[in-house]
What we know:
Elements: H1 10-13, E1 16-18, E2 38-40, E3 48-52, E4 63-64, E5 78-80, E6 106-108, E7 116-117, E8 130-132, E9 139-140, E10 155-157, H2 169-173, E11 181-183, E12 206-208, H3 222-225, E13 232-234, E14 242-243, E15 256-258, E16 264-266, E17 280-282, E18 287-291, H4 292-298, H5 301-304, E19 309-311, E20 316-318, E21 333-335, E22 342-343, E23 357-359, E24 364-370, E25 382-384, E26 389-394, E27 406-408, E28 413-416
Parallel strand pairs: 3-5, 5-6, 6-8, 7-9, 8-10, 10-11, 11-12, 12-13, 13-15, 14-16, 15-17, 16-18, 17-19, 18-20, 19-21, 21-23, 22-24, 23-25, 24-26, 25-27, 26-28
Antiparallel strand pairs: 1-4, 2-3
Amino acid sequence: MHHQGEGSPLSIKAGITTDPERLLSSWQGQDCCRWEGVRCSNMTTSHVVKLDLHARYIRSSLGGEISSSLQALEHLQHLDLAGNYNLTRPRGHLPDFIGSLHDLRYLNLSGLNFPGTVPHQLGNLSRLQYLDLRFSYDLHSADLSWLPRLSLLKYLDMSHVDLSATIDWVETVNTLASLEVLKLTWCSLNNTGHFVSRSNLTHLKILDISFNSIETSFDAISWVWDATRLEYLNLENTRIHGVFPARLANLSSLQVLQLSGSHLNGMIPDTLTSLCSLRVLELTRNDVEGDMTEFIKMLPKCSRSRLKVLRLGHNNITGSLSDWISDMTSLITLDLSFNRLTGSLTTSISTLTNVIYLNLGYNQMDGLITEDHFSKLTGLQELHLSANSFTMELNSDWTPPFRLQSLGLGSCLNQDR
Protein backbone atom coordinates (compact mmCIF):
# COMPACT_ATOMS: atom_id res chain seq x y z
CA MET A 1 0.00 0.00 0.00
CA HIS A 2 1.34 3.41 -1.00
CA HIS A 3 0.55 5.91 1.75
CA GLN A 4 0.19 9.65 1.34
CA GLY A 5 3.37 11.54 1.79
CA GLU A 6 6.07 13.40 -0.04
CA GLY A 7 5.99 10.93 -2.93
CA SER A 8 2.20 10.84 -3.12
CA PRO A 9 0.09 12.38 -5.88
CA LEU A 10 -2.03 14.04 -3.15
CA SER A 11 0.36 16.97 -2.94
CA ILE A 12 -0.17 17.47 -6.68
CA LYS A 13 -3.92 17.77 -6.10
CA ALA A 14 -3.27 20.86 -3.98
CA GLY A 15 -2.25 22.75 -7.12
CA ILE A 16 -5.53 21.91 -8.87
CA THR A 17 -8.12 24.65 -8.43
CA THR A 18 -10.83 23.44 -10.85
CA ASP A 19 -11.87 19.92 -11.79
CA PRO A 20 -15.02 20.14 -13.97
CA GLU A 21 -15.37 16.37 -14.52
CA ARG A 22 -14.45 15.51 -10.91
CA LEU A 23 -11.54 13.46 -12.20
CA LEU A 24 -9.83 13.64 -8.83
CA SER A 25 -12.92 12.78 -6.75
CA SER A 26 -11.48 9.32 -6.04
CA TRP A 27 -8.31 10.83 -4.57
CA GLN A 28 -9.20 10.04 -0.99
CA GLY A 29 -8.00 7.55 1.58
CA GLN A 30 -4.56 6.13 2.26
CA ASP A 31 -3.95 3.95 -0.80
CA CYS A 32 -3.26 6.25 -3.75
CA CYS A 33 -2.64 3.22 -5.99
CA ARG A 34 -6.43 2.84 -6.19
CA TRP A 35 -7.03 6.42 -7.28
CA GLU A 36 -8.29 7.35 -10.73
CA GLY A 37 -5.41 7.97 -13.14
CA VAL A 38 -2.77 6.50 -10.81
CA ARG A 39 -0.95 3.24 -11.32
CA CYS A 40 1.68 1.73 -9.08
CA SER A 41 4.49 -0.72 -9.76
CA ASN A 42 3.48 -3.73 -7.62
CA MET A 43 2.09 -4.70 -4.25
CA THR A 44 5.53 -4.82 -2.63
CA THR A 45 7.06 -1.44 -3.51
CA SER A 46 3.91 0.41 -4.65
CA HIS A 47 5.87 3.15 -6.38
CA VAL A 48 3.71 5.44 -8.50
CA VAL A 49 4.79 4.69 -12.08
CA LYS A 50 1.89 6.16 -14.06
CA LEU A 51 -0.08 9.39 -13.74
CA ASP A 52 -2.76 9.85 -16.42
CA LEU A 53 -4.79 13.03 -15.93
CA HIS A 54 -5.45 13.89 -19.59
CA ALA A 55 -8.63 15.86 -20.31
CA ARG A 56 -11.30 13.47 -21.55
CA TYR A 57 -13.33 16.24 -23.21
CA ILE A 58 -12.63 19.75 -24.46
CA ARG A 59 -14.37 21.28 -21.44
CA SER A 60 -12.93 18.94 -18.84
CA SER A 61 -9.56 20.66 -18.47
CA LEU A 62 -8.13 20.75 -14.99
CA GLY A 63 -7.32 24.25 -13.80
CA GLY A 64 -4.49 25.48 -11.65
CA GLU A 65 -0.82 24.61 -11.87
CA ILE A 66 1.47 21.64 -12.25
CA SER A 67 2.81 21.39 -8.73
CA SER A 68 6.56 21.08 -8.17
CA SER A 69 5.62 18.19 -5.84
CA LEU A 70 5.56 16.12 -9.01
CA GLN A 71 9.34 15.84 -8.64
CA ALA A 72 8.85 13.59 -5.61
CA LEU A 73 7.41 10.85 -7.85
CA GLU A 74 10.91 9.73 -8.74
CA HIS A 75 9.80 6.36 -10.12
CA LEU A 76 7.25 7.90 -12.51
CA GLN A 77 7.48 6.36 -15.99
CA HIS A 78 4.28 7.65 -17.63
CA LEU A 79 2.94 11.23 -17.35
CA ASP A 80 -0.07 12.33 -19.39
CA LEU A 81 -1.53 15.81 -18.81
CA ALA A 82 -2.77 16.29 -22.40
CA GLY A 83 -5.60 18.71 -23.10
CA ASN A 84 -5.49 20.52 -19.76
CA TYR A 85 -5.25 23.97 -21.33
CA ASN A 86 -6.17 25.66 -18.03
CA LEU A 87 -3.34 24.00 -16.14
CA THR A 88 -0.89 26.85 -16.69
CA ARG A 89 -0.98 29.05 -13.59
CA PRO A 90 0.61 30.83 -11.85
CA ARG A 91 3.59 31.67 -14.09
CA GLY A 92 2.31 29.95 -17.19
CA HIS A 93 5.58 28.43 -18.41
CA LEU A 94 6.35 24.80 -19.09
CA PRO A 95 7.99 23.78 -15.79
CA ASP A 96 11.62 22.77 -16.17
CA PHE A 97 11.43 20.48 -13.10
CA ILE A 98 9.78 17.87 -15.34
CA GLY A 99 13.34 17.28 -16.54
CA SER A 100 14.15 15.78 -13.12
CA LEU A 101 11.79 12.81 -13.63
CA HIS A 102 14.65 10.66 -14.86
CA ASP A 103 12.62 7.45 -15.10
CA LEU A 104 10.04 8.84 -17.56
CA ARG A 105 9.39 6.80 -20.69
CA TYR A 106 6.20 8.58 -21.77
CA LEU A 107 5.48 12.32 -21.57
CA ASN A 108 2.38 13.91 -23.08
CA LEU A 109 1.93 17.65 -22.50
CA SER A 110 -0.01 18.35 -25.69
CA GLY A 111 -2.59 21.14 -25.72
CA LEU A 112 -1.40 22.77 -22.50
CA ASN A 113 -0.92 26.17 -24.16
CA PHE A 114 2.29 27.05 -22.37
CA PRO A 115 4.02 30.20 -23.65
CA GLY A 116 7.78 30.58 -23.63
CA THR A 117 10.55 28.24 -24.60
CA VAL A 118 10.78 24.47 -24.47
CA PRO A 119 12.97 23.81 -21.41
CA HIS A 120 16.30 22.24 -22.32
CA GLN A 121 16.01 20.18 -19.11
CA LEU A 122 13.82 17.77 -21.11
CA GLY A 123 17.14 16.50 -22.44
CA ASN A 124 17.76 14.95 -19.02
CA LEU A 125 15.00 12.39 -19.66
CA SER A 126 17.40 9.90 -21.20
CA ARG A 127 14.95 7.01 -20.94
CA LEU A 128 12.14 8.84 -22.74
CA GLN A 129 10.55 6.99 -25.66
CA TYR A 130 7.44 9.12 -26.26
CA LEU A 131 7.30 12.94 -26.26
CA ASP A 132 4.21 14.91 -27.30
CA LEU A 133 4.25 18.72 -27.06
CA ARG A 134 1.81 19.49 -29.91
CA PHE A 135 -0.81 22.21 -29.87
CA SER A 136 1.10 24.35 -27.38
CA TYR A 137 0.54 27.32 -29.64
CA ASP A 138 2.68 29.86 -27.76
CA LEU A 139 5.58 27.49 -27.21
CA HIS A 140 8.77 27.99 -29.18
CA SER A 141 12.32 26.75 -29.35
CA ALA A 142 15.37 28.26 -30.99
CA ASP A 143 17.64 25.50 -29.78
CA LEU A 144 17.02 21.77 -30.09
CA SER A 145 20.44 20.78 -28.79
CA TRP A 146 18.76 18.91 -25.92
CA LEU A 147 16.98 16.56 -28.31
CA PRO A 148 19.88 14.24 -29.31
CA ARG A 149 20.26 13.27 -25.63
CA LEU A 150 16.94 11.42 -25.92
CA SER A 151 18.59 8.57 -27.77
CA LEU A 152 15.78 6.07 -27.05
CA LEU A 153 13.02 8.33 -28.41
CA LYS A 154 10.58 6.53 -30.70
CA TYR A 155 7.76 9.09 -30.91
CA LEU A 156 8.17 12.87 -31.25
CA ASP A 157 5.34 15.31 -31.93
CA MET A 158 6.07 19.03 -31.65
CA SER A 159 3.40 20.18 -34.11
CA HIS A 160 2.46 23.88 -33.72
CA VAL A 161 5.56 24.58 -31.61
CA ASP A 162 7.34 27.53 -33.25
CA LEU A 163 10.70 26.26 -34.53
CA SER A 164 11.34 29.10 -37.00
CA ALA A 165 14.58 30.12 -35.29
CA THR A 166 15.89 26.57 -35.09
CA ILE A 167 19.05 25.94 -37.06
CA ASP A 168 19.91 22.55 -38.59
CA TRP A 169 16.70 20.90 -37.43
CA VAL A 170 17.16 18.01 -39.86
CA GLU A 171 20.66 17.27 -38.57
CA THR A 172 19.36 17.33 -35.00
CA VAL A 173 16.44 15.01 -35.66
CA ASN A 174 18.69 12.72 -37.68
CA THR A 175 20.58 11.77 -34.51
CA LEU A 176 17.48 10.00 -33.15
CA ALA A 177 18.17 6.60 -34.66
CA SER A 178 15.33 4.88 -32.76
CA LEU A 179 12.67 7.30 -34.01
CA GLU A 180 9.55 5.69 -35.51
CA VAL A 181 7.16 8.67 -35.55
CA LEU A 182 8.10 12.30 -36.31
CA LYS A 183 5.41 14.99 -36.51
CA LEU A 184 6.48 18.61 -36.99
CA THR A 185 3.48 20.09 -38.80
CA TRP A 186 2.83 23.87 -38.59
CA CYS A 187 6.20 24.52 -36.91
CA SER A 188 7.38 27.36 -39.21
CA LEU A 189 10.28 25.17 -40.25
CA ASN A 190 12.44 26.53 -43.04
CA ASN A 191 15.28 25.46 -45.25
CA THR A 192 18.35 25.74 -43.06
CA GLY A 193 20.76 25.69 -45.99
CA HIS A 194 21.81 22.08 -46.19
CA PHE A 195 20.54 18.65 -45.32
CA VAL A 196 22.18 15.50 -44.12
CA SER A 197 23.72 13.34 -46.81
CA ARG A 198 22.92 10.11 -45.02
CA SER A 199 19.85 9.33 -42.97
CA ASN A 200 20.00 7.59 -39.60
CA LEU A 201 16.20 7.38 -39.45
CA THR A 202 16.08 3.78 -40.59
CA HIS A 203 13.21 2.92 -38.20
CA LEU A 204 11.00 5.85 -39.16
CA LYS A 205 7.45 4.80 -40.10
CA ILE A 206 5.48 8.07 -39.88
CA LEU A 207 6.78 11.44 -41.08
CA ASP A 208 4.61 14.56 -41.13
CA ILE A 209 6.30 17.92 -41.77
CA SER A 210 3.31 19.44 -43.58
CA PHE A 211 2.47 23.15 -43.59
CA ASN A 212 5.99 24.51 -43.29
CA SER A 213 7.95 26.76 -45.66
CA ILE A 214 10.89 24.47 -46.30
CA GLU A 215 11.26 25.67 -49.90
CA THR A 216 13.68 23.21 -51.41
CA SER A 217 13.58 20.57 -54.12
CA PHE A 218 12.47 16.97 -53.77
CA ASP A 219 16.01 15.91 -54.70
CA ALA A 220 17.44 17.83 -51.72
CA ILE A 221 15.55 15.83 -49.10
CA SER A 222 17.44 12.57 -49.54
CA TRP A 223 17.06 11.89 -45.81
CA VAL A 224 13.37 11.30 -46.49
CA TRP A 225 13.89 8.88 -49.37
CA ASP A 226 16.48 6.97 -47.30
CA ALA A 227 13.86 6.25 -44.61
CA THR A 228 12.83 3.07 -46.39
CA ARG A 229 10.47 1.82 -43.66
CA LEU A 230 8.13 4.80 -44.05
CA GLU A 231 4.44 3.91 -44.07
CA TYR A 232 3.03 7.44 -43.84
CA LEU A 233 4.56 10.49 -45.54
CA ASN A 234 2.97 13.95 -45.46
CA LEU A 235 4.76 16.81 -47.20
CA GLU A 236 1.61 18.83 -47.89
CA ASN A 237 2.13 22.59 -48.32
CA THR A 238 5.85 22.53 -47.57
CA ARG A 239 6.90 24.38 -50.73
CA ILE A 240 9.09 21.45 -51.62
CA HIS A 241 9.03 21.49 -55.40
CA GLY A 242 10.17 19.81 -58.59
CA VAL A 243 9.31 16.77 -60.65
CA PHE A 244 7.82 13.70 -59.05
CA PRO A 245 10.64 12.13 -56.99
CA ALA A 246 11.66 8.80 -58.56
CA ARG A 247 13.29 7.80 -55.25
CA LEU A 248 9.80 7.23 -53.85
CA ALA A 249 10.34 3.76 -55.26
CA ASN A 250 12.57 3.09 -52.23
CA LEU A 251 9.59 3.38 -49.88
CA SER A 252 8.08 -0.04 -50.52
CA SER A 253 6.11 -0.03 -47.23
CA LEU A 254 4.37 3.29 -47.96
CA GLN A 255 0.62 3.29 -47.31
CA VAL A 256 -0.17 7.02 -47.25
CA LEU A 257 1.44 9.63 -49.53
CA GLN A 258 0.30 13.25 -49.20
CA LEU A 259 2.03 15.74 -51.48
CA SER A 260 -0.80 18.25 -51.98
CA GLY A 261 0.18 21.87 -52.56
CA SER A 262 3.81 20.98 -53.19
CA HIS A 263 4.51 22.62 -56.58
CA LEU A 264 4.86 19.14 -58.04
CA ASN A 265 5.01 19.09 -61.83
CA GLY A 266 4.94 16.59 -64.65
CA MET A 267 3.74 12.99 -64.65
CA ILE A 268 4.39 10.41 -61.96
CA PRO A 269 7.30 8.12 -62.87
CA ASP A 270 6.94 4.49 -63.91
CA THR A 271 9.27 3.38 -61.11
CA LEU A 272 6.64 3.05 -58.40
CA THR A 273 5.87 -0.63 -59.04
CA SER A 274 7.13 -1.62 -55.59
CA LEU A 275 4.57 0.51 -53.69
CA CYS A 276 2.16 -2.40 -53.23
CA SER A 277 0.94 -1.16 -49.83
CA LEU A 278 -0.24 2.24 -51.11
CA ARG A 279 -3.77 3.04 -49.88
CA VAL A 280 -3.93 6.87 -49.93
CA LEU A 281 -2.53 9.13 -52.67
CA GLU A 282 -3.17 12.88 -52.39
CA LEU A 283 -1.69 15.21 -55.01
CA THR A 284 -4.21 18.08 -54.91
CA ARG A 285 -3.16 21.62 -55.95
CA ASN A 286 -0.08 20.78 -57.98
CA ASP A 287 0.99 20.98 -61.64
CA VAL A 288 0.59 17.28 -62.39
CA GLU A 289 -0.15 16.96 -66.09
CA GLY A 290 -0.77 14.28 -68.67
CA ASP A 291 -3.46 11.81 -69.61
CA MET A 292 -5.58 10.30 -66.84
CA THR A 293 -5.35 6.78 -68.25
CA GLU A 294 -1.56 7.08 -68.44
CA PHE A 295 -1.50 8.31 -64.85
CA ILE A 296 -3.38 5.23 -63.68
CA LYS A 297 -1.02 2.98 -65.64
CA MET A 298 1.89 4.50 -63.70
CA LEU A 299 0.33 3.47 -60.40
CA PRO A 300 1.54 0.11 -59.09
CA LYS A 301 -0.71 -2.65 -60.41
CA CYS A 302 -0.42 -4.44 -57.08
CA SER A 303 -2.11 -1.58 -55.21
CA ARG A 304 -4.75 -0.31 -57.65
CA SER A 305 -7.54 -2.57 -56.43
CA ARG A 306 -6.71 -1.66 -52.81
CA LEU A 307 -6.32 2.10 -53.15
CA LYS A 308 -8.86 3.82 -50.89
CA VAL A 309 -8.21 7.53 -51.45
CA LEU A 310 -7.20 9.22 -54.72
CA ARG A 311 -7.18 13.02 -54.69
CA LEU A 312 -5.94 14.73 -57.86
CA GLY A 313 -8.00 17.94 -57.77
CA HIS A 314 -6.61 21.27 -59.05
CA ASN A 315 -4.08 19.90 -61.56
CA ASN A 316 -3.72 19.84 -65.35
CA ILE A 317 -4.82 16.29 -66.04
CA THR A 318 -6.46 15.58 -69.38
CA GLY A 319 -8.16 12.55 -70.95
CA SER A 320 -11.29 10.76 -69.86
CA LEU A 321 -12.68 8.40 -67.26
CA SER A 322 -12.30 5.13 -69.12
CA ASP A 323 -12.56 1.54 -67.95
CA TRP A 324 -9.58 1.93 -65.60
CA ILE A 325 -12.15 2.82 -62.96
CA SER A 326 -13.26 -0.80 -62.74
CA ASP A 327 -9.79 -1.63 -61.36
CA MET A 328 -10.22 0.77 -58.41
CA THR A 329 -12.96 -1.08 -56.55
CA SER A 330 -11.76 -0.17 -53.03
CA LEU A 331 -11.95 3.60 -53.56
CA ILE A 332 -13.71 5.50 -50.78
CA THR A 333 -12.69 8.95 -52.01
CA LEU A 334 -12.17 10.01 -55.63
CA ASP A 335 -11.47 13.69 -56.31
CA LEU A 336 -10.62 14.70 -59.89
CA SER A 337 -12.11 18.21 -59.72
CA PHE A 338 -10.60 21.28 -61.38
CA ASN A 339 -8.77 19.45 -64.14
CA ARG A 340 -9.25 19.30 -67.93
CA LEU A 341 -10.99 15.95 -68.23
CA THR A 342 -13.27 15.45 -71.23
CA GLY A 343 -15.69 12.82 -72.51
CA SER A 344 -18.65 11.15 -70.88
CA LEU A 345 -19.00 9.55 -67.47
CA THR A 346 -18.40 5.84 -67.95
CA THR A 347 -20.98 3.47 -66.48
CA SER A 348 -18.00 1.68 -64.91
CA ILE A 349 -18.33 4.31 -62.18
CA SER A 350 -20.98 2.00 -60.73
CA THR A 351 -18.23 -0.50 -59.83
CA LEU A 352 -17.02 1.88 -57.11
CA THR A 353 -19.32 0.24 -54.61
CA ASN A 354 -17.34 1.56 -51.60
CA VAL A 355 -17.17 5.20 -52.68
CA ILE A 356 -18.38 7.83 -50.19
CA TYR A 357 -16.97 10.99 -51.78
CA LEU A 358 -17.02 11.54 -55.57
CA ASN A 359 -15.96 14.89 -57.05
CA LEU A 360 -15.65 15.38 -60.81
CA GLY A 361 -16.65 19.06 -60.74
CA TYR A 362 -15.06 21.80 -62.86
CA ASN A 363 -13.86 19.73 -65.79
CA GLN A 364 -14.95 19.69 -69.44
CA MET A 365 -16.96 16.49 -69.35
CA ASP A 366 -20.31 15.94 -71.06
CA GLY A 367 -22.75 13.23 -72.05
CA LEU A 368 -25.68 11.47 -70.52
CA ILE A 369 -25.93 10.36 -66.90
CA THR A 370 -28.64 7.90 -65.89
CA GLU A 371 -29.53 5.99 -62.77
CA ASP A 372 -27.37 3.12 -64.07
CA HIS A 373 -24.30 5.16 -63.16
CA PHE A 374 -25.36 5.20 -59.50
CA SER A 375 -27.14 1.86 -59.13
CA LYS A 376 -24.48 0.27 -56.89
CA LEU A 377 -23.18 3.34 -55.06
CA THR A 378 -25.08 2.59 -51.87
CA GLY A 379 -22.60 4.34 -49.53
CA LEU A 380 -22.32 7.60 -51.49
CA GLN A 381 -22.57 10.69 -49.25
CA GLU A 382 -21.07 13.50 -51.34
CA LEU A 383 -21.49 13.91 -55.11
CA HIS A 384 -20.11 16.88 -57.03
CA LEU A 385 -20.53 17.14 -60.82
CA SER A 386 -20.88 20.93 -61.19
CA ALA A 387 -19.35 23.01 -64.02
CA ASN A 388 -19.45 20.23 -66.61
CA SER A 389 -21.93 19.75 -69.45
CA PHE A 390 -23.68 16.63 -68.24
CA THR A 391 -27.30 15.82 -69.04
CA MET A 392 -29.08 14.03 -66.21
CA GLU A 393 -31.76 11.62 -67.42
CA LEU A 394 -33.49 10.10 -64.44
CA ASN A 395 -36.88 8.48 -63.97
CA SER A 396 -39.19 10.72 -61.98
CA ASP A 397 -39.99 7.84 -59.65
CA TRP A 398 -36.35 6.76 -59.20
CA THR A 399 -35.26 6.24 -55.60
CA PRO A 400 -31.49 6.67 -55.19
CA PRO A 401 -29.71 3.79 -53.36
CA PHE A 402 -27.79 6.34 -51.28
CA ARG A 403 -28.49 9.20 -48.87
CA LEU A 404 -26.48 12.27 -49.83
CA GLN A 405 -25.17 14.86 -47.36
CA SER A 406 -23.83 17.13 -50.10
CA LEU A 407 -24.76 17.47 -53.79
CA GLY A 408 -23.39 19.76 -56.50
CA LEU A 409 -25.04 19.67 -59.93
CA GLY A 410 -24.51 23.24 -61.17
CA SER A 411 -24.56 23.45 -64.99
CA CYS A 412 -26.03 19.94 -65.33
CA LEU A 413 -29.21 19.64 -67.40
CA ASN A 414 -32.04 17.56 -65.97
CA GLN A 415 -34.35 15.48 -68.12
CA ASP A 416 -37.11 13.41 -66.58
CA ARG A 417 -38.15 10.17 -68.21
